[in-house]
Amino acid sequence: MQGYEVKSYMFGQQHHYATMAEIEDANMPDAPAPAPNIDPPLTPGSAHNSSTKRRHPPSRGREITQHLIKTPPHAYAHLALITSAPSRTSLDAITVRAYLASALMQFLGISGAAIAVDILKLEEAGVWVRVPREDLAPFLAAVGGWVGEAGRVGWRVLGSGNWLSELVGREEDGRIWGD
C-alpha cells in the first residue's frame, strides 16, 4: 500500500488540497505542472461550504506599522551673521561656536552655555544649527539679541522650527516667490 499525505495551500479565500503524488509531479523538471483543484471536496456538515462562508473583497494593501512623533527631541534654526565689515564673509566652525557660546553666556549665563548646539551646515554668512527642542526659545532670544565685538557683529534669525524639512521648505519658498 502506498503512503498518502495531504497538504493544504491557501489561494485567496479558498483552500487547495494536494496529494503527495501531485507534489512529486510538480517537483519533476520535465513534467508540466498540474492545474490546481480550486474547489475542495465538500462533505455534509463541512465548515468550508461556500454558501455559509463570507467572501471578503481582496485588500489592495495593508498598513504594516504606523509611528507618530508628537514632540521631536530637537529643533532647528537658520542663522545669518550680520557684520559691519564687508571683508569677512565666510564662516568657520570655530568662529561660529565662539559667537554662539558668547551669545548664550551673555544672555543666559552658565545655564545658557550648557545648551548643546550642533552645527549642521556652514554657508557664506549663515549657519544651520540643531538644539534641544525645549531650549529653542531661550536660544533664539540669546542669539537674536546678541551684539559682539564692540557692536560690529550679530546674529539674525532667518527661521526656526521643530522639523528641518519644514524649515528648508520655507526657505526655498521665500526664494521662489522673491521674499
UniProtKB/TrEMBL annotation:
Domain Ribonucleases P/MRP subunit Pop8-like, first and last residues per copy: 74-146
Residues covered by region (Disordered): 27-61
Originating organism: Calycina marina
Gene Ontology terms for molecular function: ribonuclease MRP activity; ribonuclease P activity
Signal sequence bounds: none
GO terms for cellular component: nucleolar ribonuclease P complex; ribonuclease MRP complex
The protein, known as: Ribonucleases P/MRP subunit Pop8-like domain-containing protein
Ranges of compositional bias, category Pro residues: 31-43
Any matching Pfam family: Pop8
GO biological process, one term: nuclear-transcribed mRNA catabolic process, RNase MRP-dependent
PANTHER family: RIBONUCLEASES P/MRP PROTEIN SUBUNIT POP8 (PTHR28173), RIBONUCLEASES P_MRP PROTEIN SUBUNIT POP8 (PTHR28173:SF1)
